[in-house]
Every structure is written in structure tokens, then in C-alpha cells.
Amino acid sequence: MDQQLPEEPGASRQRNDWGRNMLSVKGLMAEVGGKEILRGLDLEVAPGEIHAIMGPNGSGKSTFAHVLSGREGYTVTGGSVTFDGRDLLELEPEERACVGLFLAFQYPVELPGVNNTYFLKAALNAMRKYRGEPELDAVSFMRLMKDKLKILHLDDSLLKRPVNFGFSGGEKKRNEIFQMALLEPKLAILDETDSGLDIDALRIVADGVNALRSPERSMIVVTHYQRLLDYIQPDHVHVLAKGRIIRSGGKDLALELEDKGYGWIVEEEAAA
Amino acid sequence: MSTTTQAQTNGVFDAWVADGGDAPAGPDWLQAARRDARARIATQGAPTAKAEGWRYTGLRDLMQQDFQRVHEPVSALQPGDIDEALIPGLDAHRVVVVNGRYVPQLSALGTLPTGVRVGGLHAMLQSDPAALEGRLTQIAGAGCHVFATLNTAAMDDGLVLLLERGAVLQRPIELIHLSVGMDEPRVAQPRHLIHLGDGAQAEVIERYLSLGDSLYCTNSLLEIELGRDALLRHRRIQLESPHAFHITGLYLSQGANSQYDGVNIGLGSAWARTDLVTRFRGEHARCDLSGLYLAGDRQLVDYHMDIRHDLPNCASSENFKGIVHGRGRAVFDGLVYVAPGASKTDAAMSNRNLMLSENAEVDTKPQLEIYNDDVKCSHGTTVGQIEPEMLFYLRSRGISAPLARRMLCLGFAGEIIDALGNEALRQHVAEQVGQRLEQAPV
Ligand SMILES: Nc1ncnc2c1ncn2[C@@H]1O[C@H](COP(=O)(O)OP(=O)(O)OP(=O)(O)O)[C@@H](O)[C@H]1O
Ligand SMILES: [Mg+2]
């Protein structure tokens, strides 16, 4: 990935001006329902990088994703999150989306009665408005949607249905990536987008994600399965346990985890 | 009720039925019915706070007003004046009633198919009273609440729609009730009669609107009779001044195998009370009532239903949804009665409410009185809030919280709005609901 980044001196100086990293999480601590879940989480994500986060059930992966996207009910009790030079934690959820953060939900929410096309248009136009761009006219919008649907091999009948309502598990996950393709975020967090996908769908989703890779776009991919990482090659792999990143490495770490599980790292961490 | 109370309440309603109007006396049978109604007003009086059917419907504000009867027709309005009241793209035979008077020069009937008669009630009472006999005042009959009795006694003008056996209306009849503010608060009491002969089919779009935001009362009454195999689609949109009081009594009598498909949209006025009353005269008839109401700050919306299954093999359904915000109040009171002989009755009732504020209030009371075991009856009510995870999902896609709430409210209401069928009407109502929600402090 790194060699794809701009190499001319001007570009790198510009990067240094606002800090190398797109996302900088320092000592993040958060509670939910009075329970401490994140206990000093550190993570640095540079533009264009893909980070995989793995870790046992209940270790706080989704909590981390929700805290980043500003979901209510989570109390940040310590640490900081800087996104593109801004204090992310200061922003409302919709502002976070507008500055380029996207969360593909582990459990996409069904919205009965809310038409998918209307929803996508509202989302896209909200972001364009935030950036001071005019709303897309109906024709350009439909053309854009058709293009993105093709990437995800989605049937356009889904557009006429209520958002996620009655969608199969796999359709819901694909609909998340479809939204990501449409909204073109700077940083996407994919929370177990691979769970519940059949082998073909996994391929399609991974291809979709790879098509969206660019030197400016970063991704945090939360997964339990090393297989996804065969399709979406990460730059870094992290293990999140008990609310902290306890081990980071390259793609090999994922293979090692697949082989040996999490127990050994958690033990090593406890002993250290 | 004591004699003194009777005297008082009688006094309260004197102005509602004051003489001096241009209403034709009509034939003997009608005069008798109206004399009878006048006599009943005295004994009925105004419902007390404890009266069955009025417990949650505060009458104080209404009774405090000094409503005067409208006698003079509004003649100043020109066709262009009602342009803002028209729905773009709605292709219909239009009948306009202003302050309770049928106004031919504002109406646009167009060409009617054979077997269809449309006209003003007062005019028809003079030209062809026989066409109304046995129907007018008979379908609503006795046993109605005092406001229906008042309407019978006063009987302002209204629509008469008569379809002969087998007649089919291709385009809907649009009945616009327009209220124009006067110097002092007025009460208009329009009276409508719809009769569909055997196998006849029609759609009626009934709209209540105000020019301006004045204080007035509309006390309307509809009598609807469906012959065997007849089909009536009835859409009712109430969107009045925030200071208006609104009362509707809809009395429906259905012949064998007939179908009534009614959608009620209640969006505006200070205080609104609607009674939907259905009786089946033949088997295998079906009555579907659905509704959407929006009660904003200090508004009251009240729907009462009284569906009586005396005969076997009939079906009825009520599906009402409400959105209540600010200090709005909604009342849903649905009574379905199934008589011992009414085997194979199919009755389903549902009332779901979305509360947008802590001070909003809903009183929902489904009542199923079933005296037969061989029936299929169900009812369900819910009172809930916007789901936080739905709201978050929308916001996480960049949509502002107020717009996200509106989208979810419209999503909730969508099922009923879609039931309107007619695309121009559907769009109009969706826009109006959206606008009301936009004004709501959510
Ligand atoms: N509202 C809540 N109240 C109390 N505890 C909560 C609440 N929400 C989440 N938790 C707890 O927080 C912990 C972390 O949950 P989280 O969903 O972040 O785990 P995860 O790493 O995503 O797990 P999985 O791999 O199963 O998706 C869990 O123990 C969970 O039970
Ligand atoms: Mg999770």
C-alpha cells in the first residue's frame, strides 16, 4: 500500500502538516450500561491503509465501532479520537458521517416503511449539502445507483423495498457495502461484514470493497475469519481483547490466530 | 339528567339550530324527523364528562364557544379563490361545499356517466324529495349522539350522490368542505347522502379545508347506503385551521356482499371527533376502515368506531395509526359487537401509536364484544416511541436527527398513506404529513 502513496515532496509535506494519520485513537476508554468495555485502546490508521481487528466475542470490537460513529448510550471516560485533524468525539453522528466516516453495521437495522431509494438519496444529499455541493438531480442519482448496484451484484428491486426490511442476512450485508460505495467515505469500519455471507457473496463483497480501495480511503475491518483477509489484504492486523489492542502485526498474525486461537496472546499479555 | 341541566344544555345548543335559514322545509316525513330531532336535543343535552363515549373527549373548549349558525351562503368566492385548495393532478368530479352550503359555481362536475346523480341536498329536497325518502335521516336513525341529532335538526346543505343499480363511476367524486372565517365563530352542519344501488361502484374523496386559520365548528353527518354487491372507496382527509372544531358522524349501512373501503386521514384542527358507525343488512359484506392521525401540540384527535355484526359471514377491519407530539392527545375507541347469530364473523382491529414527546397522550380502547364462538376476531394496540437504533442508523448515514425522525414517522405512516391508492392524493397527503411533522417540535 505504502508505495502507492504520493511520493513527491510536496505531497508528503502536506501529509505531515496535519499529522500522518487519518485516524488517531489514544487511550480510549468507554462504558456502556455502566460497564467498562474499552480500557485504553490505541490505534493509528494512515490514509489508504487497511487494518483488520480480530478478537474474542465480547471483547469490545463493536463497541469501538459504535463509539467511533457516535452511537448514544456509550460514555467515553478517557482518551481521544482524532479524525482528519478533528476531535471526532465532539461531533454528532451525522456530522461524523458527513466528514467521511462510515460504519457497516454488524446487525444492519430494518426500517419498515422507509423506502431504500429515498433513504439513499437523503443520505447522499445530506453529505453533499454538508460539503456545499448541490443536490443530485433524479437522473444522475439513478445512474449512480445503477452503477454501484452492479459492483455489488445487487438486484435493483432492493431499491424499491423498505431499507433492510425483510432482506436476507446476506442482502443486508451487501446493502451496507452498497451504501459505502455510494457514499464514498474516507474511513470505513466494516463490522463483521463477512458473517452470514455465502462463499460467492463473500467474494462479491470483497471485490466490492477492493474496488473502493484507494490511497485516500482507509478501512478498519472487524472479522473473526482469516479467510476474509485472503480477499481483502490488510496492512495491519490487531488483536482486541478486554477493551485493548493487545497485539499488532502483519497478515501472518491472522494466520497464527486461525491456527492457535486467542488464548496464548491473552495469557502472554496477562503475564507481561 | 335533571330538568335544570336539560334547560341549560338546551339553551347551549339553541344557536346551533336557530331558525332563519334558507333550508327548504321539505316533505312531511322530513319535517317530522326534524321536529323529532329538536325534541331529542332537549333530552339528550350535551354529553357530560362521564358520559360513555366522551370520557376522554373534553367538551369544555367546544361548549365555551358561542357558535352561531351560518345562514347566508358565501357568494363572494370565485373559482380562482379555491385554487390553493386543489390537488395537482387529481382528476375528479368536484363538488364544493362552503360553510355547509353546496356552491355550484365552484363545483366542477364534468360529465357524469349514466345512472349517476350528483347534486345539492337543498336543491334535491325541492326538485325530487322522493329520491331521498327512506334514506335521509333513516340510515343514521335514532340512538346517535347529540351532535348527530343537532345536524338532523339544522340540516344545512350538502352532497347527494345517487348511483343506480350497476352504475360505475370511473373518476372519483371529490367533495371539498371549505370553511371560510367570519367575524364571529360559526357552526356549519353539512349533511350528505350517498346511495349506491346494487352492484354500483364509486370512489369519494372527501376533504375538509379552511381558508385562513379562523375559529369555527363543522358538525357534519354522512349517511351512506350500499346495495348488494356495491363497492365504495371512501377517502377522508381532514386538514383544517388549527383553531377549528370538527365533528363527523359517518353512518354506513351495507347490503349483502357489498364492500366499503375507507381511509381516514386526520391532520388538522384544534379538536376533532369522528364517529364511524357500520351496520350490515346482508351477509358476506365487508367493511375496512383504516386511518392515520397526527395530533400536534394541544390538538385533540378522536376516532370512535361502532361496528355491529348482527348477521353471519361479514368481515370488518380497523387499522389506525397515530403520531402524537407536543401536548397532543389522541383517542381511539373501537367497538366491535358480534351478535349470537353472527357466525363466521371475521373482525380485526389494530391501533398503533407513535409518541414523539413525553407530554403526548393516547387513550386507546379496543372493545370486542363477542357472543358467538364460531368467529375469527383479533385486536392489538401499541403505544411506542421512535426506536433509538433506527434513528442512529439514519444519522450514521449523514441524515440530521430531525429529518431522520420525520423519515421514520413517514415510514410508520406509509402503510396508511399508500392505502389511499390514488397517486395524486397519496402524494398530496404524504407532503402534508411531512409538512406537519416539519412544524412539529421533535
Ligand atoms: N447496553 C449494554 N449494557 C451492558 N453491556 C453491554 C451493552 N452493550 C454491550 N455490552 C457488553 O459489552 C461487551 C462488548 O460487546 P461488543 O458488542 O463490543 O463485543 P464484540 O467484540 O463486538 O463481540 P462479537 O465478536 O460477539 O461481535 C459485551 O460483553 C457486551 O455484553
Ligand atoms: Mg461485534
Structure description:
The complex is a heterodimer of chains A (272) and B (442). In chain A, the strands form two sheets. A six-stranded mixed β-sheet of chain A has the order 6-7-8-3-9-10, with helices on both faces. A four-stranded antiparallel β-sheet of chain A has the order 2-1-4-5. Chain A is 39% helix and 24% strand. In chain A, helix 6 packs parallel to helix 7. Chain A is globular. In chain A, strand 9 and strand 10 form a beta hairpin. Chain A has a domain of 186 residues: Rossmann fold (3-Layer(aba) Sandwich), CATH 3.40.50. Chain A has ten helices and ten strands. Chain A is α/β, with parallel strands linked by helices and 272 residues long. Chain B has 442 residues and is of the alpha/beta class. Chain B has a domain of 281 residues. Chain B has eight helices and 21 strands. In chain B, the strands form two sheets. In chain B, strands 1, 4, 5, 7, 8, 10, 12, 14, 16, 18 and 20 form an eleven-stranded mixed β-sheet that branches. In chain B, strands 3-2-6-9-11-13-15-17-19-21 form a ten-stranded mixed β-sheet, covered by helices on one side. In chain B, a hairpin with a 2-residue loop joins strand 2 and strand 3. In chain B, helix 7 packs antiparallel against helix 8. Chains A and B meet through helix 3 and helix 4 of A and helix 6 and helix 7 of B. The complex binds adenosine-5'-triphosphate and magnesium ion.
